[in-house]
Write a structure and sequence with these properties.
alpha/beta, 5 strands
Length: 127
């Protein structure tokens, strides 16, 4: 009986550690998360959107509407932290759910998207 209880507790602990942490944050909190040198920022918008409006400096671009987006996301290291954003938060919310299903450890979603980032007057780069 004791072994069975220990096994259950071990398994429950493993599940807690293995779960994805999704954080939906505002632009200021997102910017603070960018201080993490191990985090990767991903812009999920189309190339046209980036050309017209700019992007967060240093972000990697994966067009979430592209047919290859799922495969590109699947190739990422699931142990790293990813900071994701789109224009208004819809695509990045969907992407966060996908990354959770794929077993990514930590995903930080810019809840109101790049539009909120621009409204706050934070630095914008170009591709």
């Amino acid at each position: 009986m004791r072994k069975m209880i220990f096994g259950f507790l071990f398994f429950a602990g493993y599940l807690c550690l293995a779960q994805t942490k999704i954080k939906n944050v505002d632009a200021e909190t997102f910017k603070n998360h960018m201080q993490n040198k191990n985090a990767t920022v991903i812009d999920l918008r189309t190339k046209d959107e980036i050309t017209r409006k700019g992007m967060i400096k240093g972000a990697l671009q994966i067009d979430f509407l592209d047919t290859n987006a799922r495969q590109m996301i699947a190739k990422l290291d699931r142990k790293k932290t990813y900071l994701i954003y789109c224009a208004g938060g819809g695509r990045s919310g969907d992407c966060a759910e996908l990354m959770e299903k794929m077993g990514f450890r930590e995903v930080v979603n810019l809840e109101k998207g790049f539009d909120d980032w621009k409204r706050k007057g934070f630095e914008i780069g170009t591709k």
